[in-house]
Automatic annotation (TrEMBL):
One of its GO terms (molecular function) is transcription cis-regulatory region binding. It comes from the Bacteria. It comes from Paraburkholderia fungorum. InterPro entries: LysR_HTH_N, LysR_subst-bd, WH-like_DNA-bd_sf, WH_DNA-bd_sf. Belongs to the LysR transcriptional regulatory family. Keywords: DNA-binding, Transcription, Transcription regulation. Residues 1-60 form the HTH lysR-type domain. Transmembrane segments: none annotated. This is LysR family transcriptional regulator. The keyword Transmembrane helix does not apply. The keyword DNA damage does not apply.
Length: 304
């Protein structure tokens, strides 16, 4: 490559300022320096970039096309410089975030993170067994967003981000869907499809136990099993809005809680021993400030 980045920057500056003299003033160089740089660039490329027959230089057709390419090159150089600066300031090149809750709950945060740290790669993991704690203990993720647990290991930090609704549902036509109110005894008489990570760990799950229980390691598996009519289950309402709206799934109204939704906290979790860089610290702070919520059956926010 015979031409330099300096020449490309000068070429772009001449186009944007409209003259060699204006370009020289804007970057603190002499007009002769600007003229020489453009002339050398034209020699390197073997074609004229400006028509100099008029008082002010005008781009030739070839110059106009190359200017678009030059703009892309200079923009990419700025991205490269920004990336290098981030790395030099101890910004991690990659972060891993485990998310157990429906992803739409944290998308505003990820959108902001993308704008703030465009050069940091982000791995989003949904734990196979739903166990965010285990991933943190194994040092496989930097941060976790999960439904609140009654207790955490001592070396974990956590903060509540808000609350979401877990809905008890069955496929339309299931015997439980014909009842206006469903008792715990009636729930126990039918097969329960349960997310294995939450079996008897979330608050009040002890009341939902059943003599027949099938477990699955993902919400999507539970969704398909419920769709097949294999039993009733408990899923984040945000995950099944379409199925509820279309009437494919019916939400079971529990007799013990006829006027309330089952609200479960959503926590941000981290290992106190893990050192976060600039990007990780920013993401942690942004997640702590982010409010996770939805509207309950009365139209009220689940998080104040």
């Amino acid at each position: 490559m015979r031409y330099s980045l300096d020449q490309l920057e000068i070429f772009a500056r001449v186009v944007k300022t409209g003259s060699f003299s204006a370009a020289a003033r804007s970057i603190g160089k002499t007009q002769s320096t600007i003229s020489l740089a453009i002339s050398n660039l034209e020699v390197d490329w073997g074609l004229p970039l400006f028509d100099r027959t008029s008082k002010l230089p005008v781009l030739t057709p070839a110059g106009r096309k190359l200017f678009n390419e030059v703009e892309l090159v200079l923009e990419r150089c700025l991205d490269l410089e920004s990336h290098a600066n981030d790395l030099g300031e101890l910004v991690e090149p990659r972060l891993t975030l485990a998310i157990e809750v429906p992803y739409n709950a944290v998308m505003p945060v990820l959108t902001d993170f993308s704008a703030q740290f465009p050069n940091v790669d982000l791995d989003v993991r949904h734990p196979i067994h739903g166990d965010v704690n285990d991933l943190l203990l194994k040092d496989e993720v930097d941060l976790g967003v999960a439904f609140a647990q009654p207790a955490y290991p001592r070396d974990f930090g956590f903060s509540q981000m808000g609350k979401l609704i877990l809905a008890h549902v069955a496929r339309r036509g299931h015997p439980l869907t014909h009842q206006k109110n469903v008792s715990f005894a009636e729930l126990r008489s039918h097969r329960r499809l349960v997310f294995s990570a939450h079996n008897n760990t979330l608050p009040s799950t002890e009341y939902l136990d059943s003599a027949r229980c099938w477990q699955a390691e993902s919400y999507l598996a539970l969704l398909e099993m419920t769709r097949a009519g294999l039993g009733w289950t408990t899923l984040p309402r945000q995950l099944i809005l379409r199925e509820l709206e279309e009437g494919e799934f019916v939400e079971l109204q529990l007799a013990a809680y006829p006027h309330t939704d089952w609200l479960v906290g959503v926590d941000l979790i981290w290992s106190k021993a893990r050192v976060l860089g600039k990007a990780g610290a920013w993401l942690k702070c942004r997640l702590q400030d982010h409010k996770v919520y939805e509207l309950d059956r009365n139209g009220n926010s689940t998080t104040l």
